[in-house]
TrEMBL record, chains A, B:
Domain Fe-containing alcohol dehydrogenase-like C-terminal: 199-398
Keywords: Oxidoreductase
Pfam families the UniProt entry points to: ADH_Fe_C, Fe-ADH
CDD domains according to UniProt: BDH (cd08187)
Gene3D superfamilies registered for this protein in UniProt: 3.40.50.1970, Dehydroquinate synthase-like - alpha domain
Protein name: Alcohol dehydrogenase, iron-dependent
GO molecular function: alcohol dehydrogenase (NADP+) activity; butanol dehydrogenase (NAD+) activity; metal ion binding; methylglyoxal reductase (NADPH) (acetol producing) activity
Residue span, Alcohol dehydrogenase iron-type/glycerol dehydrogenase GldA domain: 19-187
GO CC terms of this entry: cytosol
Keyword Oxidoreductase: yes
Cofactor(s) essential for the protein: Fe cation
Length: 401, 401
């Protein structure tokens, strides 16, 4: 063990800061105006996606709530899944023109991520994309969220992912200034989602948990156990929510699990992976598929490829989470069976299982692998659990055929 | 089911707000001054307990750290376990006289709870005890903590418990204003604790988890699983920490688990119990025993008495946490075996198991039960899981003989 490897073997020093005020439960969205006022907003940009927030009546509730508190607002809709830089620039200009002092994101992870980019860009003299190329986000307009899909965890994180249309690069940034001041989580708002989108969200949450579970830090039982707890919750509640959109309880459990999975309380003090997210981002950037659907195809391939790096870690999740019987003579069989159980679970909730089902093409593999490893900010490798080069990533994409 | 019982059957609406900045890891206490400055302190009261913080050199490190940042300070030591109102009054007077604008608690739960009481009282015109008789805490001086024992969870909560010397009443208050601005958690600082105090802390953390686990709210799988995760962590890491004070990893796991057990992220949206704490508070108020030791005696008695109220809940924790085989024909046998497993665990880490070992006396039972149910703010009953009257509480104390 080298001196510099210390952090790989013992729980690391860390800071944890999650100052978001969470308001959870049925009908809480009617209090949006109250919370905007409490956190200092007087002129608000309401940021949202397509027509569903309008059709469901949610936007009208939000407008009424703001009006009741005497808060002025302007609106910017049109956020698409895998949110684009072009709309971010539009939002930044709008904020400056209208002297916006608070951004209210009404939607899922894409809307919240777009709102975060606008919030940072509106108070920055340079190009907001600098933040997605490595610059630290040190200031941003305050934002609040009204969440409509359990998936990204963006409602409780300082993270944001944006796609640059020129070249279709999908890149992430993070910063404490991007953590929402408040987030309203009403599980009932997710009941209008199609089963497929519900399943995509469940897959994304599971991925956030696996990315943290796959660590090289030893003896971090407390966070291992918390991750397993949230995985077990998703495995029990996920299929219920997909099968019956009227079931409030399963959606409530999933919604809190989705936030806890990504506010990093279960990821502190340990190295993390994020290989699956990095490899998936190239798929959703190129094919505009749902991020969760992409992850369903990517995760089993990545885990199978990396299994030999730490068989016992994959065996641990297989036994504790997937209920696989431990094969003490052949732990690699147990480890592999855990990956198969994940694959069967994802199929059971309607997720794709390979390139064809996702709409991805074999002939793009070289380009995908190159962008993943050498994209505008990367340096030839990817992965926190195993350091993978371009050839490794190509091999992983081939496992998805 | 009555309309008013709604909250007992579905996940409740709730708010969750944990804005404390946690700084975790070895040697982080040398940054205390940095964080005091960051959170606005310029004239600090350092509040601490007995001589151990002095002897270990911890106080000197804190003083140096404050001096390095140019922060002035005064000191008030002498906090005892089961902290008293008399020292709180002294602290309030000192804060006013010295124009203190930040309180830094250096110690365990007793020191932090005492600091919270001083912080609230220093900016309140009336008697601080009003807050411990039901008045809402709406303002307080900012506080920071440097934690030296994993137990109370006060470093990440808005709770405080103080004992009024006149009549020896032990009462609690809570309020968002009491949540620390920052908390420094260095697991190495807990390595100087005697094994007995380490075990008392482990017991207190387990109790915080049981108080939340024992709920009448149905289908709250996400928080059930999170509580179980933290219990399993304590069961694995607790005995290691008690056996070997030099083991950093077990203390690191316990320290994060202790915070997560009580910041309420695993208790939201569900009814909670707090019977064991209420019944224990009378013991530590009267006999000045360690709170954790009292809980070790109280918990098995309370759980045995309440078992019939929800056999399957006690069976669930027995199977999932204590590894008891489910007896499908006699679930009450499984439930009882879970309580026995808890009793054996507590004995194995050196905790007392009955009144005699705790130093409590049978002839005081009537007084204890009466104070618990009719103490200066109570109304004849106690308990969130099962509503218990004075006769019930007497019967529970008798189970501890």
């Amino acid at each position: 063990m080298e001196a510099g490897d210390f952090s790989l073997f013992y729980m690391d020093n860390f800071t944890f800061y999650s100052p978001t005020y969470f308001v959870f439960g049925k009908d809480e969205e009617i209090n949006a105006g109250h919370y905007v006022k409490r956190f200092g907003g007087s002129k608000v940009l309401i940021h949202f996606g397509g027509g569903s927030a309008q059709k469901s009546g949610l936007l009208d509730k939000i407008r009424s709530s703001l009006k009741n508190e005497g808060i002025r607002f302007v609106e910017l809709g049109g956020v698409k899944p895998n949110p684009r830089d072009s709309l971010v620039y539009e939002g930044i200009n709008l904020c400056r023109k209208e002297n916006i002092d608070f951004i209210l994101a009404v939607g899922g992870g894409s809307v919240i991520d777009s709102a975060k980019a606008i919030a940072a860009g509106a108070v920055y003299d340079g190009d907001f994309w600098d933040y997605y190329e490595g610059k630290t986000v040190d200031k941003a307009l305050p934002i609040g969220t009204v969440l409509t899909i359990s998936a990204a965890g963006s409602e409780g994180s300082g993270d944001s992912v944006i796609t640059k249309e020129k070249g279709m690069f999908k890149r992430a940034t993070t910063g404490e200034a991007l953590r929402p001041k408040f987030s309203i989580l009403d599980p009932a708002l997710t009941q209008t989602l199609p089963a497929y989108q519900t399943a995509c969200g469940i897959t994304d949450i599971l991925a956030h948990l696996y990315e943290r579970y796959l660590t090289n830090t030893k003896d971090v039982e407390v966070t291992d156990r918390m991750i397993e707890a949230l995985m077990l919750t998703m495995i029990k509640e996920g299929p219920i929510a997909v099968a019956d959109s009227n079931d409030y309880q399963s959606r409530a459990n999933i919604m809190w699990a989705g936030m806890m999975a990504h506010n990093n309380s279960c990821g502190v003090g340990r190295s993390q992976d994020w290989t699956s997210h990095n490899i998936e981002h190239e798929l959703s950037a190129l094919y505009d598929c749902a991020h969760g659907a992409g992850l369903a195809v990517v995760m089993p391939a990545v885990f199978t490829y990396n299994l030999k790096h730490d068989v016992m870690r994959f065996a641990k999740v297989a036994v504790r989470v997937w209920g696989v019987e431990m094969d003490f003579e052949h732990p690699e069989v147990t480890a592999l069976e855990g990956i198969n159980a994940l694959r069967r679970f994802l199929k059971s909730i309607g997720m794709p299982g390979n390139f064809a089902e996702l709409g991805a093409k074999e002939e793009d593999i070289d380009e995908l692998a190159h962008k993943c490893c050498y994209g505008d900010v990367n340096t030839g490798t990817t992965g926190g659990f195993v350091t993978l080069n371009e050839d490794d990533v190509k091999a992983i994409y081939r496992l998805m055929l």
